[in-house]
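Holo prediction. Input below; ligand is zinc ion.
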Amino acid sequence: MRVWVLGSGSRGNAVLIECAGTRLLVDCGFSPRALAGRLAAIGFAPSDVHAVVLTHEHQDHAKGAAAGAARFGWRVHATEGTLRALGAVPNAESFPAGATVAVGHAVVETVRVPHDAAQPVAVVVSDPAGGARCGVAFDLGHVPAAMLPCFRDLDVLVLEANHDPDLLAAGPYPPSVRARIASRVGHLSNPEAARAIRAFAHRGLRHVVLAHLSETSNAPAVALATVRGVLEGSRFRGALHAAPPDGPIGPFAPVRTRVGAPAQFELGLFA
Ligand SMILES: [Zn+2]
Ligand SMILES: [Zn+2]
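Structure of the complex:
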């Protein structure tokens, strides 16, 4: 498995995961032209992508999905609510929030997250043969208890660290926007992200990528310092990164391949 964050922030989000011979995007919040440029920077073309899994319908996550499906034949996997909110999307396949679905040769577990969208989810993409697991959680107002079992035993974690509470409070947004961002269905703050990483951490977690950093209410150094502080003395032994908004970061790859897949990866049990 190899993972690249192609860019992350309010201007667009996409994660490329190459898993068991399948290349899938988690979210495609860039125009086809912008996405092609970001893929070219890491040696890929849009036609190398097989499918996109959408976390929710907001344009910074879904803008390029329909065009990619139409031009390159990508399959688009999303919850029923997300697809309804988006309207017509070619090659679309819906799944119930919380379902586990096969996407090519990869397995995608989903979990409902709290955010002001129709039916948003976080996802864990795993390799059923090697066992490597990558969790991606964008845009969530808080971390629901259901995420803990889903985000267990990860090798790579991409997690929103949207804002520093003090920078948000002192920033230029009107009070209604600040309240929406900080709400239980808004976006995750640096301290909330840090506590979640501490909860998800185990010795095999090799890379944590902080994502969706606000360019107004956050800064990479602030987010990294907050998370490092909370992780002090924890089980986390991996590397911590901050995803830039303007270009790819990666690849992040598990350094060990676990042998044998958990029983729930048997094909017959897919929801
Ligand atoms: Zn959103
Ligand atoms: Zn977003």
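The two ends are 23 Å apart (CA to CA). That is the main takeaway for now.
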